[in-house]
Structure formats: structure tokens, C-alpha cells
Amino acid sequence: MSTNSHDSHSGKSKTSKSDLWLIIACAAIIIFAFFDLSKTPVTYSNAERDVAERIQKVGAVQFRDAAKAARPGEDVYKAQCAACHAAGAAGAPKFGDVAAWAPRIKNSFESLVNSALKGKGAMSGQGGGEFSDLEIARAVAYMATQAGGKFKEPEAPAPAAEEKK
Fold first, then answer.
1. Can you give the residue ranges of every domain in the chain?
2. Picking from 37-46, 80-89, 154-163, which range would have the lowest pLDDT averaged per residue?
3. What is 73-146's CATH topology?
């Protein structure tokens, strides 16, 4: 009996029905997933929100009660200055240390206040913070006086008289 080796390889490929359904199901899942993803809405940003983000504030304006009395130098020293000047941290002249304050007191009171407001050395500027410039000046007068200086706490300026129309 002779058998032809080509007999087993001839004819149509035989794919079972279960394999065919598996292929169709996979193709359907891929197609539906593609269309579902393509239906995802594109969100465009709100023009007003974009403008607000571009022009967001850089600083802030604080309104203070002008009628509120300025705090005395000792109170401002305790709240703002004592953290460094009580211990002499970062080269700050220690509170009450006559030798450390003497060269600074030789300069004018205005130069001491200017250094406090704008900053000097490791000390950042104290102007524009929680305390007014007048209150910082009072703290400077208090500290310098405790170290041998003879500075009087500055007074609040008199309110300007309103012009009559």
C-alpha cells in the first residue's frame, strides 16, 4: 500500500468552531476598545480660568487699621527680634551687649532703622511684615537704648488735617 505524503497536507485548513469564535471575540474587544477610547471627550480649558492662571497675583495688599495704636518697642522686640538678638544668633548683636552695640549706636538712629527695615548680614528685612515701619523703629530704639544708646521711641505722626472744600 502506498501512501502519498501530500495527502495529509492537502485541502482546507481545519479550524474548530470554538477557535473561530475566540478569534471573533478578540477582534470585537479590540475594535470596541479602540472606539470607546476615541470617544473620550477632549476637555478644553476654560478661557477665564486660563486668563486667571496667567495673571495670578504676585503679591498681596494688606489694609491696616490706621486708628490702631502702634505697639511699643519692647513688645515688638519680644515678638519679632528676640529670637535672634536674645541669643546673638547668626552674628546678631546680643540684647544688652554694650560692646556689640557700641559701633552700631555710633551711626545714626536712621541707619539702624534702615538696616532693620531692609536687612543686613543674616537678618532679612523686617519692613512690610506684620509690624509697621514705625513699630520696627520703636524696637530698634528699645534694643539700642538697652545697650547704652540714648534713643527715644519715635512717635506716630499726627493725622493730617482734612482739607475743607
1. 73-146
2. 37-46
3. Cytochrome Bc1 Complex; Chain D, domain 2 (1.10.760)
What would the 3-class secondary structure string for the chain be?
CCCCCCHHHCCCCCCCHHHHHHHHHHHHHHHHHHHHHHCCCCCCCCHHHHHHHHCCCCCCCCCCCCCCCCCCHHHHHHHHHHHHHCCCHHHCCCCCCHHHHHHHHHCCHHHHHHHHHHEECCEECCCCCCCCHHHHHHHHHHHHHHCCCCCCCCCCCCCCCCCCC
Q: What pLDDT does 18 receive? A: 87
Q: What is the pLDDT of residues 84-140, one digit of tens each?
A: 888 888 888 888 888 988 888 888 888 888 888 888 888 888 887 888 888 888 989
